[in-house]
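Continued from yesterday's entry.
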Amino acid sequence: MNTVTHTEKLALLGGPKTIQSEFKRYNSIGAEEAQAAIKVIESGVLSQFLGSWHEDFYGGPKVRAFERQCAEYFGVKHAITVNSWTSGLIAAVGAIGIEPGDEVIVTPWTMSATATAILHWNGIPVFADIDSETFNLDPRSVEANITPYTKAIVVADIFGQSADMDEIMALAAKHGLKVISDTAQSPGAIYKGQYAGTLAHVGGYSLNYHKHIHTGEGGILVTNDDEIAERLQLIRNHAEVVVGDKGVTDLSNMVGYNFRLGEIECAIGIEQLKKLKGFVESRQSLAEALSDGLQGLEGLKTPIVRSDRTHVYYVYPMQLDLDLLGTTRDCICDALNAEGVSVSRWYQNIHLLPMYQRKIAYGSHGFPWASDICHRDVNYAKGICPVAETLNDTTYMGFGMCVYDLGFNDVALIVKAFRKVWAGLDQLRG
C-alpha cells in the first residue's frame, strides 16, 4: 500500500503532480485480429447479407461463425450479431412484441439508448430507481412502478455487475412481463453461475470500441427463445420484405432495418471472443488491487460486489461521503484530475434529459405522450428516482477502467494520488 508520509501540496494548488504522463490507451486489438481482417479483405466478401428470403439472409461465413461461437461461449441457443448495441436494443424491444402505448420500466442510470429503444416502437419509458450499492435497477422500485399498462422491463447491468435478476425475473413472471438485459458494459460477468445477459428473455453485449472486446462498432444479442431469435433476425434485415416468402404470419413490429454486421467485424470478433476471459480476469485483478490500496480512506466507498456474482469493471464506481470529507465532490475530482487520475463526477439521469422533460420525441406535438396511445400522464419530474439523482448530483465518482491499458504499477500510482489528495483534504476544505 502506498502512503503519504507528510502533507504535500496538492497539484491542484500548485504542488507536484503524482502521475506525470498519461496512461496507455486500452487497445484489445492485436496481430490476430489484423490477420483475420486481411483475410476477409483479400476474399473480397465484406458482407454476404441479402435483404430477401435466401440462404444469405443470415449473412456470410464469418457472421455465422461468430454467432455460433458466441452462442456456445455464453451458453445460449441463439446469438445474433448487429451493427451496434443501440441497434440490438431497438431490435430486442421490437422482438418481444411491444405495442404502441405499452409501458416499459427502465433504469435512469444508463446510456440513453437503453430508454430510447423503447420510444422507437412508440412504447412509453417508465423510470424506476436504482440500488445504491450496485447502481442497477432496484426490484422494489420496479414493482412500485408496474401498472396495468406495463409490458416489459429493460435492465442495465451497469459498470460491469449484474442486476438482481432472480428478483426481477420473478416480478416479470408474476405480472406476465418480458425482460431485456442491456449487458453492454458487462460481458463475461457471472450471476449465480450464469453469464450476465443470458438470464432475461433476451439480452446482449456491446462491441463498441471502448468495451472489453470490440469490433469498432457492433453488438451481440443472446436468447434461448426460438421465436424471439427469429424476430430479431427479421428486424435486423428488412423484415417487411422477408416475412411473406419465409411464411411468417405474425407481422407485428416487422418493420425491418439494416442492422447487419459485416464480415470484417465478425472476423475480428471471433478473435476478440477468444480473449474475453483473459481481459476480464486481468481487469478484476487490477480492480482488486485498487480496492486494496484505497482501503481506509475515510469518506470513500469503493465498489461493492455481491457474493453471488462477479464484476468485470467497465467502470470502477465509487461514492463519496461529503459530510465526512468536509468538502465537495467537485473539489475531490478536480484534485484527483490534477494529480493525473481522470475521474468522472456524474453518470446520467436519463429521465431529466430534455426529451423527457418536455415530452417531445416524434414531431413537435408531444408524440407519443400526448397521443391517444398513451394511457396516462407518466411522471418524469425530478424526485422520482432519488437514489440515482443524489448519486448523479453529489456523491458518485467513477474511474474508467476500460479506457486505459493499466498495469499494477499504474494502479500503485493511482493509489498514491488518492492518498495524497486525502492527506491534503484540509487544503481543499480551506
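--- second protein ---
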Amino acid sequence: MDKMWLQYPKLKKEMEAVLQLMKESTRCKDKKIESSILDLINSGGKMLRPAFTLISSHFGEYNEERARALAAVMEMLHMATLVHDDVIDDSKLRRGQETIQSKYGKDYAVYIGDFLFCVCFKILASNSSLQSIKIDSKSMSRICLGEVEQLNTRFKSQVSIKDYLSRISGKTAELFSLSLYIGSAEAGASQKVNRLLWNIGHNIGMAFQIIDDVLDYTGLNSEIGKPATSDIKQGIFTLPIIYALQQDKGELRRVIDKSKYEDSDISMIISMVNNYGGIDKSKRLAEKYTLKAFNLIDKLPENEYKYILKDVAEMMLNRAY
C-alpha cells in the first residue's frame, strides 16, 4: 500500500481490510485469472477511489462492512477499466509493471476485465440500495462513453476544449464523483452533503486528469508509471496540444497530421506545445478545478475526515509537473 496512507492509521487499517476483501472476492476456479488479478491488486496503486468511499462514509452513519464493500467495488471498477484501456492502447506498462494484455494476450485481458465487472455487481447486489446500483450503472455508462469518445478522436486535430473536458468528465472525473458520493449516500448522509461530495469528486477528477495529461509532456516514466509521451504517440490529443493549436500557424498541425510519429516528431511536438503556451494554460485550468474542489471541501460538515479529504486532495493535485 502506498506510503501516503501511513499518516492516517485508522484509514490505512480500513483500506487493508478493503484489499483483503478484494482478494477474497476475486477467488475463482481459474487460477490464472485469480493470479493475474492478485498481481494487479498488489501492483502498488494509490487506492484513491476506495479511500474516498471510506472517507465519505464517515459523513453519515458509518457501517464498516458496507463501507469496505463499496470501497472494494470502486477500486475493482477502476481496475477493470484499466485492464480494458491497456488492451485498446496496446500498453506494455501499467504502474511500472507489465500489463495483463502484454503478459497474457488481449483476449485474456478482456475476460479478466469482464470478470472484475461481474464481481463488482455481485458485491453491490448485497451491499447497496437499488438507487445506488442505478447510479453506479449510469456512471459506468458515462465512463465507457468517455473512453469511446477518446478512441473516436484519435489523430484528429479538430478537438475543442469543450470536447476534451466532456471526455475527461466521463473517463476520469465520473468515478471520483461516484466514489465520494456512494459512501455518503449509503451511509444515509443528507442530499446536500451527497451532492457536495459528488461535486468535490468531479473537480478533483478534472484537475487530476489535466495534471496527468500535462505529465505526458513533462514527466518521467518512473513518475507516471507508464512511458512518457504515450498519449502523443497514440494520437490522443489532450489539453496541452489543444491549447497550442489555438496559437498555431500551421506548423504544429502539419506534424500531428502525420499517420506515424518518429522520435524527432515527438520532440518537435513537445517543443511547440511548450512554446505556444499549451502546458502553462493547462496548468492554470487544473489550478482552477483544484481551487473549486478545496472551496467545496470547506463547506462539508466538521469532522476529522473532512481534513483527511483535503490533505489527500492536496497530495493528489500538487504533483510535480
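The CA atoms of residues 274 and 280 lie 8 Å apart. The longest helix spans residues 191-218. Will compare against the first tomorrow.
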